[in-house]
Amino acid sequence: MRRQDTHRLAVWLITIVAALVVIPIVMVIVYVIYQGISEISWEFLTQHPSNGMREGGIMPAILGTLFLTLGTAICAIPLGVASAVYLAEYAPDNRLTHWVRLAIINLAGIPSIVYGLFGLGVFVLFMQFGTSILAGSLTLGIMTLPVVISTSEEAIRAVPQIFRTVSFSLGATRWQTIRHQVLPQAMPGIITGVILGLSRAAGETAPILFTVAAFYVPELPQSMFDQTMALPYHLYVISTQVPGMPLEIQYGTALVLLLVVLSLTLVATVFRTSMRRRREW
Fold first, then answer.
1. Is residue 109 in some structural domain?
2. Quick check: pTM over 0.85?
3. How far apart are CA 91 and CA 275, in angstroms?
4. What is the tally of structural domains in the chain?
5. Burial 178-201, CB ≥16 within 10 A → b, else e
6. Residue 9: its pLDDT value, please?
7. Among 17, 128, 167, 205, which is disulfide-ready with 172 (CB 3.0 to 4.6 Å)?
8. Is residue 16 part of a domain?
9. Does 157 map to a domain?
């Protein structure tokens, strides 16, 4: 077989595989939009649930999801990026750091239900935070850390060594080089990892099931030690625990959750594209 024929066959195979992955995802998104768009209204987005969840809106669940996502970002981003900087720029290349990286990769693949049980045992019971936004945010933050650390470290390592060499030659310290040269150049990749982790956290049900989520809360949370509703758990409840629940409300809730996650991804994409245009390599 000629080289051009082999190349053409490879392109076709890759295209078919990509289509097999993308088409089902698009079909699911289109189906959720088709089933749930009729339920989306201002009242649905701004009112409390009523009549046993069968009427009203999902405003407490939306706010709860935003609170948890913000809390996850506060817990995971500083520690994750700092850990990535240490592993990429300061840690010696020895067996210990290899084991640490392997552990981080393995932690990223642990089922979320395990993190939920860990959060229940450590934050809810041992540290006595109770089922609260704080306990849920810390649990989701720990679950998000491996993704943030791995992607941030790869982004930092991808910055060409010439930036460090020139900065050192001009008399800058290692930290000044990292702060003013390496991190700005690695920021698009870091943001990608952060948003991937936050998107996963925003859509998780198992961790918040044990640490923060409530079936129904009549009032909005007043502090980080209060329980809250959240879109993933709310969707699970109205789909499995409430008899006679209209399908429109279920799909409307699913559509709102989908839009929240897609909005995070869109913001990250726009910001990352803007940063890449200003990148110097």
1. yes
2. yes
3. 27
4. 1
5. beebbbbbbbbbbbbbbbbbbbbb
6. 86
7. 167
8. no
9. yes
